[in-house]
What we know:
Elements: E1 8-11, E2 16-20, E3 31-34, H1 37-45, H2 52-72, H3 77-92, H4 99-114, H5 120-156, E4 162-165, H6 180-190, E5 195-199, H7 206-218, E6 222-225, H8 230-235, E7 241-244, E8 248-249, E9 255-258, H9 261-270, E10 275-278, H10 302-305, E11 306-307, E12 310-311, E13 324-327, E14 334-337, E15 340-342, H11 347-353
Parallel strand pairs: 4-5, 4-7, 5-6, 7-10, 10-14
Antiparallel strand pairs: 1-2, 2-3, 8-9, 9-13, 11-12, 14-15
Helix pairs in contact: 1-2, 1-3, 2-3, 2-4, 2-5, 3-4, 4-5, 5-6
Amino acid sequence: MKFKVSPLRVDWDKGIVSFIDQRIIPYEERWVEVRNGKETYQAIKDMVLRGAPLIGVAGALGVYLQAKRDIESGMNLDEIFRDLEDTINLLRKSRPTAVNLFWALEKVRNAIQSSSLKNSAELLNLLRRIAEEIINYESEVCVKMSEIGAKLLLELKPNLRRVLTHCNTGALATTGPGTALGVIRKLAELVPDLMVWVDETRPYLQGARLTAWELVKEGIDHRVISDSAAAYLMSKGLVDAVLVGADRIALNGDTANKIGTYSLSLGAKRHGIPFIVVAPISSVDPNLPDGSSIPIEERPEDEVHYIRGVRITPEQSKAFNPAFDVTPAELISYIITERGAFKPEELKEALKQTTEV
């Protein structure tokens, strides 16, 4: 599957990773360079990059970058190991909800601890190999999910023409064609007159800015709507399916995603519309039996108060800015992973079938 958007560039030899700055799309396409673990942490925290799979990739790359800087500074191997443990712990604090970050960092930590490394060159090669494996894995599973999801949707809705999506789940959020937006890309190949309803996704406008930008790049017909218009469209029979991504999925299928997703699931349930979650197995947290313990990130008030530097609320007003909500499993029709499409109650079996990177 070809797609025209890529969120990162890696110069392994120089030890520089560049991320397209997602805070200023579509007004400008600017790249931000990071050269060590602390800069990677800051880029994730400040949302230069976002999207659960890409955050995981960035975490692994951040450890590689820090190792390269440590080697260049003349640290010995034991000193590097200690510093990389501190770097992993720092990166874990960058954003709390997306489990892919913790999955990727644990893969890196386990690789370091289980390898008999003789020198710093072997360490750097190991960290590069693990990071490349995670990058390739996230890309490959996006393609698989796109194909599985499109097939399922056309089986459920042979006359499907209009889909609704929330936030941004495309190439900007992954290293492939995307999760939910990857499915939509595949559907657009199979359904020439497909039209996409794009929730603006307040307060950070990932839908209006990022998803719409990707769809423009791909030439896919779409309409941006206010989040509050979604249920109205459903009531008028103008939505055939809802497709969303996930930042963390509990074992019972409860799913954390960008704030506003839960509201969409309620509307879809009321109107008998398939509500589909698309996410790699790496987004499933095997330590959480249900969604009640999923940590919900609360972001700065200013993201609600300001749009592009202009305040839209009274100076005296305070704001509350939860970045995610949790959709209960009973409101989800299917969870699409790289291993197939599963009902939420089938998710545990999906985990058993999966061979990870």
